[in-house]
Amino acid sequence: MPHINAAAALQISVLLFALPAQYFISQWYRTDSAERIQVTERLIIASWSISARSYLSPEVWADRLKLWVSKTRSCLYVELLILHFRNWYYGENKTRSGDNEAKPHSYFAESTHVHSPKPEYIKFRVGQVIIHRRSGYSGVIVGWDVKANTLEEQLQPRYSPVKQDLKDTPHYRILINKANGFGKSTAYVPEEEITVVMGLEVVYHPDMETYFSGYDGSKYIMQPWLKKLYPHD
């Protein structure tokens, strides 16, 4: 495919704009002043509608940024940028809707610091497919904390009085398999509530490609940016 520089792009834009501009001018001089005003109003309304859909929509910008990142995934800085943007934008929406899972990226195993060294008592690894023992849903691990990492007032209602000690055990962030029809898209659970399963390759979730590049037969393969956060998994 030939390379198009800025000058060539500008020339093409001018040529493409010339025909509709010529038509608009011809229509302008064929009408009286009242009709000219109506034509101008329709043009302004149509232009605003297109601009609002194309440039003022957060969803459109999020999709464009994600597509750009997919082409430059080897750059750690860019990967972290899209992760921060996604967590900020969608996290704000979830918080307003009352989802307790949505918190700043430093909570719920979403911290961007390098998890090294890895304690020996962390049993599971990022990329492994799990089954939740009580709820029965399947999913894939995308992060872990050595103990529950969130605000204390949010932890209290999560566990009964007899299970408050679970707060000090390893916790994992899970992308929940959409095929389960569970309703939630993510979970943050203690180690004792999940078990790893083998041979269950397919996990359907819209963020899978953000975190993983494939499957090696035993677990999902982390994207380079995620591997740098969990170098021992």
Automatic annotation (TrEMBL):
A Gene Ontology molecular function term of the record: DNA binding
Record-annotated Hemimethylated DNA-binding domain positions: 121-223
SMART domains found in the cross-reference section: YccV-like
InterPro entries (alphabetical): Clp_protease_adapter_ClpF, Hemimethylated_DNA-bd_dom, Hemimethylated_DNA-bd_sf
Pfam family, one: YccV-like
Xref: PANTHER family: HEMIMETHYLATED DNA-BINDING DOMAIN-CONTAINING PROTEIN
UniProt protein name: FBX21 protein
Gene responsible for this protein: Fbxo21_1
